[in-house]
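Quiz preparation item.
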């Protein structure tokens, strides 16, 4: 079996790049002949097509990447298999996607979204995102590299650290988390700090300002800390291990890679009982999941060139679409109170989470699952 993988390669620290690179590493580790190229590099892709002659071209992205991941390899007579995430609404390329013999998606919820928006479900197979469970592994907070992170963030040894990681924190449920934390005055014994690690990008600065304004309004100005910085994947396991509770009741989540990585590090997770987290978290066994408090519904969207349309193309829905979720703030508050006051329960959930991730989401396990799917669905060996 010869596999060419198309993603953001060489990998940046972002989710899609990590998703592709872990599969690439997993395939190499289990003995599959594989190479990787950037999805938006037609020159290099064609080079691989001509000399490597892959049996399949696996592309990581969302439906808007159809020209790069599907149409380009098809021009050279190759078999593309996209591995897709959700992006609110699948507005274009339904005809191209429906002609494929196999589409991979990251969770059962993502499959539901594609079927909802006109893609045939009989060709869609769920393949979860892998996790390097040797890199993301439990470490004590006394570990020098972990303790150094807590020191750099100003977290005292007797303080609980709550953590959210994302391109921006709002989309990962930080505003709902702050509202929940504001309800806990006098209800939790340990001192605590809420750290949001976000990535520098134009929209992040505006969102950070709005989020920190909310923290001030809620009386949490001295408790909430936003850290905006580029970091490598090498840093992330130590950052996750520095926290006591990982909090991410996300507004939109097709899988939830940070939640899985937190579980691999033995951390209890607070999520939302919806979307991709239904596949990755087990309520009251590996995590605590808040119910959905609100659904954000739209009747139309404006799309453009990035989605294969002209600029300002309007799509009007016959049936309104849910494009965003909000976790129930009271549920988040109850879950936080329980975890913050009970160290033994934090350890219990974290231990179970580690076992769950190792069994289901280790990157080599995902690579073997990918190979089985190609064997069964495309007769590629």
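Solution:
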């Amino acid at each position: 079996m010869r596999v060419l993988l198309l993603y953001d390669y060489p990998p940046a620290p972002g989710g899609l790049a990590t998703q592709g690179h872990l599969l690439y590493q997993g395939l190499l580790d289990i003995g599959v002949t594989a190479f990787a190229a950037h999805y938006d590099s037609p020159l290099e892709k064609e080079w691989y097509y001509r000399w490597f002659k892959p049996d399949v071209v696996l592309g990581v992205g969302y439906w808007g990447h159809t020209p790069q991941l599907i149409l380009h390899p098809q021009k050279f007579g190759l078999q593309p298999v996209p591995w897709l995430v959700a992006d609110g609404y699948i507005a274009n390329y339904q005809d191209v996607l429906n002609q494929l013999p196999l589409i991979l998606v990251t969770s059962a919820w993502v499959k539901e979204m594609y079927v909802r928006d006109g893609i045939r479900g009989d060709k869609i197979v769920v393949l979860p995102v892998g996790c390097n469970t040797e890199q993301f592994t439990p470490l004590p907070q006394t570990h020098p590299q972990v303790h150094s992170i807590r020191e750099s963030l100003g977290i005292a040894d007797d303080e609980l650290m709550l953590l959210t990681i994302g391109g921006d924190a709002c989309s990962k449920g930080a505003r709902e988390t702050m509202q929940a934390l504001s309800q806990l005055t006098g209800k939790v014994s340990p001192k605590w700090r809420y750290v949001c690690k976000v990535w520098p990008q134009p929209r992040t600065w505006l969102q950070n300002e709005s989020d920190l304004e909310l923290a001030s309004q809620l009386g949490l100005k001295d408790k909430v800390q936003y850290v905006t910085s580029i970091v490598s994947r090498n840093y992330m396991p130590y950052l996750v291990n520095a926290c006591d509770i990982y909090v991410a009741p996300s507004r939109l989540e097709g899988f939830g890679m940070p939640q899985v990585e937190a579980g691999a590090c033995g951390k209890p997770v607070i999520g939302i009982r919806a979307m991709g987290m239904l596949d990755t978290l087990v309520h009251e066994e590996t995590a605590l999941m808040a119910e959905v408090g609100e659904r954000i519904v739209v009747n139309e969207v404006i799309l453009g060139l990035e989605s294969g349309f002209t600029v300002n193309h309007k799509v009007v829905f016959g049936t309104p679409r849910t494009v965003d979720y909000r976790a129930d703030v009271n549920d988040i508050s109850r879950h936080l109170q329980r975890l913050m006051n009970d160290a033994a329960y934090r350890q219990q959930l974290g231990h179970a989470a580690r076992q769950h991730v190792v069994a289901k989401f280790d990157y080599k396990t995902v690579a073997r699952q990918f190979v089985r799917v190609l064997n069964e669905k495309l007769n590629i060996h």
